[in-house]
């Protein structure tokens, strides 16, 4: 093949036949594009959602059995009390971890490449945060499926509502994690230090592992101002089929608060991202 | 859409006093210091400079990634601060890092990139296919990016930058990490884009020969300033002559060679031992006559060599430092006792004048 011919073929390919669409796509289109981009690796490798579940599953298997007849864990089986908490924990962990993906892309140049496209900054954050819903649902299904043979009772309508609340929370936690990544930029240690420092206090103060009811007053106060507490309580009610409880509304409110906070901070950080 | 801007006006890039400072640990780093740049539609421009000269920072301002500290820049007819969306729509950018996400597949990234520019799903897929074959990525496009070699990743980056067939393309060190063959391919592709489709190209490079052979216009940047801006030929003519090295059998003969050479107009002559170096314009034309004259004088010349100037010679002349040797270090003055300044002495120290030197990082 002669080189000139090859070069010519190359040419048309490089410049293309159709020009780009100069009309600016909508926010929805932008968000959808980012969402799909984030989702593709998950779909290509669904097993990856299990990585962030290791800790929740360890707690489920090795800590859960210690809870039978523990005061404050309700009347039914300890599993019925513990599993909703583990579902929230799994959502919290995978959401808190997700910022590290952006952190990596900030360092390699992938994020920079996205910043030069006409995508809206807000879409870059919202699309990413929305994607968190998918692994959350997958993880919840896995946890529930694993626990049912051991006597966990599934109330479908309530569980579906719980997933809805968790979806809102996942968006919030994801957005906060992305904000932290944007703030840390090329300082990995900053991201991981803050992430790890915050994660466990929030986990413990939400009464996920042990109920706070019998703790000292100051601990209970801290628990009361932790939005996660309300999400956990709501999930416990819902997974037990108690849909018409006041706690459900409170949980939904707390999740909405987290989402609003996360998106607000996240979009702001993304706008300042360079 | 502002029709006067892109279609009629020949200006593609116009900057005035473009400046960018960074604050690192309370100290101000003046990365770019008042750059005035004018690039016409259809030009191919190379920004050449050592590490830390401010090339990437300049590009990042022109591509809306970084707001300038002061000064203005209009790119494709739009202000990079006030009309970011309009600028982004019209440009392509291939950054210094890797654009493709490591957990993604190449083809997915290409399609997504097209979608980012508002292309339809089908059009984006078709365009991705075109670019995959144009850049020889067929066998790796469906693999996870993290498993690709550096060169394959770089080609994927290039493909992503071209997805929307931009009128104006910025490339930050496009060929870094490519083997010589892929570098040549890439250069050819960029040249084709430029010559046959009139794409305006602004690239930065670490390769002296790349700037020399590809660009019609080389902008030499140092310490955040433009220190020269011309065609490679003109730059070499203005800032570095050809170099003739003649070797004689004896020091005496060498002295006579030097005396004779000094009679040529504009020649700078240095003798060291039996070797004589002549800096002059048009060496290939001058040398045959010089050899005949010397033969007539009865002087025996045992060796003759002509070296054309390189961009490194140009840089050396402009700054007194060699780009090739890592840039920021001042040249070791008088390394071999050369009479005409430390800069040249350093250039001669390693005796290489080939044009294929990469600037040491
Ligand atoms: N984000 C930043 N924060 C602080 N300093 C920066 C930042 N980006 C660049 N600099 C500094 O600005 C100067 C110019 O950097 P720049 O990256 O533009 O150089 P360059 O010419 O592209 O170099 P190279 O050839 O190594 O890519 C350097 O001194 C660099 O340390
Ligand atoms: Mg650079």
UniProtKB/TrEMBL annotation, chain A:
InterPro entries: ABC2_TM (IPR013525), ABC2_TM_bact-type (IPR047817), ABC_2_transport (IPR000412), Nod_factor_ABC_transporter (IPR051784). Residues 1-23 are annotated as: Disordered. One of its GO terms (biological process) is response to antibiotic. Keywords: Antibiotic resistance, Cell membrane, Membrane, Transmembrane, Transmembrane helix, Transport. Coiled coil: none annotated. Residues 47-273 form the ABC transmembrane type-2 domain. It is a multi-pass membrane protein. The chain crosses the membrane at residues 47-67, 79-104, 133-152, 158-182, 189-212, 243-267. Pfam families: ABC2_membrane. GO terms for cellular component: ATP-binding cassette (ABC) transporter complex. It is found in: Cell membrane; Membrane. One of its GO terms (molecular function) is ABC-type transporter activity. Its main location: membrane. Residues 1-15 have a biased composition (Polar residues). Belongs to the ABC-2 integral membrane protein family. This is Transport permease protein. It comes from Phytoactinopolyspora halotolerans. The lineage of its organism: Bacteria, Bacillati, Actinomycetota, Actinomycetes, Jiangellales.
């Amino acid at each position: 093949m002669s080189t000139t011919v090859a070069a010519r073929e190359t040419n048309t390919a490089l410049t293309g036949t159709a020009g780009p669409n100069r009309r600016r796509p909508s926010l929805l289109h932008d968000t959808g594009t980012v969402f799909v981009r984030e989702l593709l690796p998950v779909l290509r490798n669904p097993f990856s959602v299990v990585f962030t579940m290791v800790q929740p599953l360890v707690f489920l298997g090795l800590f859960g059995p210690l809870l039978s007849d523990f005061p404050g864990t309700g009347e039914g089986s300890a599993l019925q009390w513990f599993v909703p908490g583990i579902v929230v924990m799994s959502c919290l962990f995978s959401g808190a971890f997700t910022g590290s993906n952006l952190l990596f892309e900030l360092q390699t140049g992938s994020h920079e490449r996205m910043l030069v496209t006409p995508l809206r900054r807000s879409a870059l954050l919202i699309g990413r945060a929305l994607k968190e819903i998918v692994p959350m649902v997958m993880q919840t299904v896995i946890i529930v499926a694993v626990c049912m043979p051991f006597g966990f009772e599934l109330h479908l309508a309530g569980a579906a509502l719980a997933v809805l609340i968790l979806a809102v929370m996942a968006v919030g936690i994801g957005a906060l994690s992305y904000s932290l990544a944007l703030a840390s930029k090329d300082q990995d240690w900053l991201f991981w230090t803050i992430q790890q420092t915050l994660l466990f206090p929030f986990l413990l103060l939400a009464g996920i592992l042990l109920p706070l009811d019998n703790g000292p007053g100051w601990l209970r106060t801290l628990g009361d101002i932790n939005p996660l507490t309300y999400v956990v309580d709501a999930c416990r009610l819902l997974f037990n089929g108690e849909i018409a409880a006041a706690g459900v509304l409170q949980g939904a409110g707390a999740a909405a608060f987290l989402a609003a906070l996360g998106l607000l901070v996240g979009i702001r950080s993304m706008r300042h991202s360079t | 859409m502002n029709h006067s801007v892109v279609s009629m006006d020949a200006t593609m890039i116009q900057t005035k006093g473009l400046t960018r400072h960074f604050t690192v640990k309370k100290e101000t780093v003046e990365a770019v210091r008042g750059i005035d740049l004018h690039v016409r539609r259809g030009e191919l421009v190379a920004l050449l400079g050592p590490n830390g000269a401010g090339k990437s920072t300049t590009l990042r301002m022109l591509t809306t990634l970084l707001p300038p500290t002061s000064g203005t820049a209009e790119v494709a007819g739009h202000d990079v601060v006030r009309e970011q969306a309009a600028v982004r729509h019209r440009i392509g950018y291939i950054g210094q890092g890797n654009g493709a996400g490591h957990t993604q597949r190449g083809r997915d990234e290409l399609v997504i990139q097209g979608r980012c520019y508002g292309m339809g799903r089908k059009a984006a897929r078709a365009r991705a296919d075109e670019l995959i074959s144009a850049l020889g990525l067929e066998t790796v496009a469906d693999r996870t990016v993290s498993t690709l070699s550096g060169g394959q990743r770089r080609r994927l980056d290039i493909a992503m930058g071209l997805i929307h067939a931009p009128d104006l393309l910025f490339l930050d060190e496009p060929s870094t990490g490519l083997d010589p063959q892929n570098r040549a391919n890439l250069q050819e592709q960029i040249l084709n884009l430029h010559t046959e489709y009139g794409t305006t190209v602004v690239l930065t490079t670490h390769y002296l020969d790349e700037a020399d052979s590809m660009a019609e216009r080389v902008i030499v940047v140092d310490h955040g300033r433009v220190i020269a801006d011309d065609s490679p030929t003109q730059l070499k003519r203005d800032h570095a002559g050809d170099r003739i090295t003649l070797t004689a059998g004896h020091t005496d003969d060498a002295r006579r060679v030097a005396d004779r050479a000094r009679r040529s107009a504009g020649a700078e002559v240095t003798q060291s031992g039996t070797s004589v170096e002549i800096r002059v314009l048009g060496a290939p034309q001058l040398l045959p006559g010089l050899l005949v004259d010397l033969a007539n004088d009865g002087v025996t010349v045992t060796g003759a060599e002509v070296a054309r100037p390189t961009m490194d010679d140009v840089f050396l002349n402009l700054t007194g430092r060699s780009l090739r040797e890592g840039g920021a270090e001042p040249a070791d003055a008088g390394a071999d006792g050369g009479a005409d300044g430390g800069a040249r002495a350093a250039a001669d120290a390693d005796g290489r004048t080939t044009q294929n030197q990469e600037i040491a990082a």
